[in-house]
Amino acid sequence: MKYLLLLMFLATSSSSSAYEISELRVPLLADPRRAAELSCHFNMDQYRLHSVKWYRDMDEIFRYNPQQTPSIRLFNVSGVMVLGGSCQAARCEVAVRPAPVAARALYTCETSTEGPKFLIARETKAMTVAAMPTSDPVISGAPGAARAGEQLLLNCSADYSLPPADIRWYIDDQLQKSESWERSGLSAPSEGGLRASWRALRLSAAAARGALRVRCEAELPLQPPVRRDATATILVHTGTYPDKYVAGRGVTSIVNKAMFVIVIFWTFLKTSIFTSL
Ligand SMILES: *[C@@H]1O[C@H](CO)[C@@H](O)[C@H](O)[C@H]1NC(C)=O
Ligand SMILES: *[C@@H]1O[C@H](CO)[C@@H](O)[C@H](O)[C@H]1NC(C)=O
């Protein structure tokens, strides 16, 4: 009796492993501007195929019933447009176009055999909606050379992507904490929901260092993250300007301030004359 049970167990386990989904192909990343192809290959063993169903998370998006007309039915669900598909005895392919939203969803292929048994086989893989940048970020506002103490405003612009890139600045390989007053932004979405992001960096060219190496890193927050970067080197000059020039600038600015005060005072006098009339 024991042996009989063991034999039965072996027989069922070997036959059930022959009826299976042998391969499920789902792209890891899908660009919302293009169709993504999903494919499912299965071994029916001695069974007859009853149906093949595709799901996005819990929602059915596609059904193939070889015994019915039409044999293929598509279901619209939020998050994906089902463009079409084709099925044969041992495989089923579906074309989908994900909504332009950076999201991850599980795609399941489920096969079922004819009754009375209706054996089910199922495989699932995740697909993340993303669109890669086609170029490195660009740093603008970085002069080749600067005076010690000079205030600089740099801007790093990342290419269009989905999700939009997070931008980080490094000076001599040190991450710059982003201050609340530092500006950053996103472009309007392009076709497929891609956006370009930018972040400004205010910095003071310090006197001690001969050169500043600034690096801007644009990262798409995916698993694993996708990074691209750009660098710029700014030479910093110290004490290379004659005193006369510096003093002259000082005098000019004092004269300008005095002129400004005089103009304000004169305007005030004129206004008070008019209002007193
Ligand atoms: C799905 O939605 C698209 C666009 O809204 C429509 O053209 C198509 O006919 C719909 N398909 C089904 C099966 O409802
Ligand atoms: C930075 O560049 C982007 C364009 O790439 C622009 O829209 C934005 O206004 C710039 N920011 C600053 C602070 O200059």
TrEMBL record:
Keyword annotations: Signal
Gene3D superfamilies: Immunoglobulins (2.60.40.10)
ATP-binding as UniProt keyword: no
Signal sequence residues: 1-18
Lineage: Eukaryota, Metazoa, Ecdysozoa, Arthropoda, Hexapoda
Protein name: Ig-like domain-containing protein
Stored InterPro entries: Ig-like_dom, Ig-like_dom_sf, Ig-like_fold
Ig-like domain location: 133-233
Taxonomy, superkingdom: Eukaryota
Keyword Flavoprotein listed: no
PANTHER family assigned to the protein according to its UniProt record, in alphabetical order: BEAT PROTEIN, BEATEN PATH IIIA, ISOFORM D-RELATED
Species, as recorded: Plutella xylostella
